[in-house]
Specification:
Mean pLDDT: 86
Shape: elongated
Oligomer: single chain
Structural class: mainly alpha
Number of domains: 2
CATH topology of the largest domain: Tetracycline Repressor, domain 2
Helix content: over 70%
Strand content: under 5%
Length: 205
Amino acid sequence: MNINAPLKKGRKYDQVLAGAREVFLREGFEGASVDQIARDAGVSKATLYSYFPDKQALFMAVLTSQCQMQSEQAMGIEILQRPVPEALYSIARSFLDFLMSDFSVEVFRVCVAESARFPELGRAFYDSGPKLVLDQIADYLASERVQRDLDIADPYMAADQFLQLCRADMLLRKIFSIETSAAPEDMDRVARETVATFLARYQRR
């Protein structure tokens, strides 16, 4: 399996991704079949295989596309131009929306379950998801705009701390099916407290 092999794109590429996303979310990685994905996407198996060599590559393409879309929403230019506390709140809230989504939790479960058999799947998941977010937030924290307000010597460490504060306990409760969803007001509260705690540590005096 070569997860990092370049994938050609075409007219039905997005159609295949949309169908695959629904099947993976509904059936999980192990339960999802290429036949079912092709049916849900409304394409032939030959068309599907013309884009993706195997189910693992398709799974990672779905994950990557979702992470990129989330990143564009959370780290858009308009958001990053706001005052730092407002920008941090928007980033935290957007991150929580994605983190607590059914898709994100299911992907996390799948990658943990499959990473022993397919270590490259775990690496690809980390690189296209957690590491991507961490790198982007670290770049933002290292920017001149942020450094005027915050005293951050190690942006990468600060970004990791920020994300860990966002996760709080609600992620574990959902992963373990203790709760099936997070209320918007709870995510708002966690985002606000994340920013307050982060600023208390790093704001210039």
